[in-house]
Amino acid sequence: MAAGHLEPAVRQRSPMPNGYVFVPKGDVYITANVRRRTHAAGSTLYVVTSEDRKKQLGLRCPGAIHEAVLADSQATAAARAAVVRSRDEVAERTFEEAMLGLFPNIPKAEVPAILRRTLEKRSRRVGRTGRLEMEAKVRLAVLAHIRHGHTPYHGLLKDGMPRHAARRKIAREINKVALQWGRESDAPLVRMRKDKKDHTEKEEEAGNADEKRAKKAARRTTRRAARRAAGKAVAKAAVQSIATRSLRLRSGKRVEVPEVDVDAEEEEEEEDGDQYMDEDMDDEDDSFIVEEDLEDTDDDWTL
Q1: CA 118, 121, 124, 129: dihedral to nearest 10 degrees?
Q2: What strands lie across the sheet with 20-24, from one edge to the other?
Q3: What is the DSSP letter of 33?
């Protein structure tokens, strides 16, 4: 919303103001000019949302302004398209130059496919982002191309291997091709680290950890029960012996002493340190994933 201009939000089903029309989202030229001209005319511009207000659907503006913007859009379409083509050509040349600088040995036949894929508009792929430096974008685009076209990555996924496990498996193959295409001084381009495991792997590890904890808890319970049983037996024998000697001393003759129910005594509380004795202190096996510094979608080319 432009500074100093009110743009009230209205639901899609709210009554349309007299003389206004709905302008759907999608054409940046039309929506931007509708907004600018409505503000310049001192009229109210309405932002149309879904009924739950979670999604913006478009604008409501005076019909006359919308008609004027549509006419200008048609009149300038060819010129604007030429500007866009020129800008795209510059972007493609810049990307290609950077790519050949980092990967001077890349086969010429591979270049068009990489450019076409990574620079596709509205794809959210790395070539279109403004959040990364050119070198980072080039590296990510080339690595993605190698992964999809020069490794068995898709076959592994098709066979049911989790995505991050498949990436770990092909990491060395990606590095090998990348180093062949790049400068000899380049270090491996696919780094490997221990985090960001696949959801399936995490679930399996969690299940294994739960099983380990259950087994250790069972062993602790068994040992504690054994210790308690042994302690009760010793205590029972000791009490019986003391009572017998005491009565003999008093009466001078043998007296039968009733057995003491040690089980009825209050159980001794677990020692503080015992709970730590059997904790799972085993180191987990290191596992690694291919890191690309970006969290991408299943397509592996997008941001």
Answers
A1: 80
A2: 9-11, 46-49, 56-62, 20-24
A3: H
Cα–Cα nearest to 292, from 196, 156, 151: 196
Token pair for 289: 């994933």
What CA–CA distance (Å, rounded) separates 45 from 17? 11
Specify the DSSP element, H or E, that contains 5.
none
Return the pLDDT at 148. Answer: 94
Distance CA 84, CA 68 (A): 23
Is 121's pLDDT higher than 90? no
pLDDT of residue 253: 53
Any bridge partners for residue 153, and if so which?
none
pTM of the model: 0.53
What is the spatial distance between Cα 227 and Cα 219, in angstroms, rounded to a whole number? 12
Residues 6+ apart with CB under 8 A from 215: none
pLDDT tens-digit profile of 151-194?
999 999 999 999 999 999 999 999 999 999 986 555 556 665 55
As a 3-state breakdown, the chain gives helix, strand, coil percent values, each rounded to 5, of 55, 10, 35
CA distance 173 to 150: 8
Residue range 45-58: mean pLDDT, rounded: 95
How far is Cα 183 from Cα 143, in angstroms, rounded to an integer?
15
Q: What is the spatial distance between Cα 210 and Cα 214, in angstroms, rounded to a whole number? A: 6
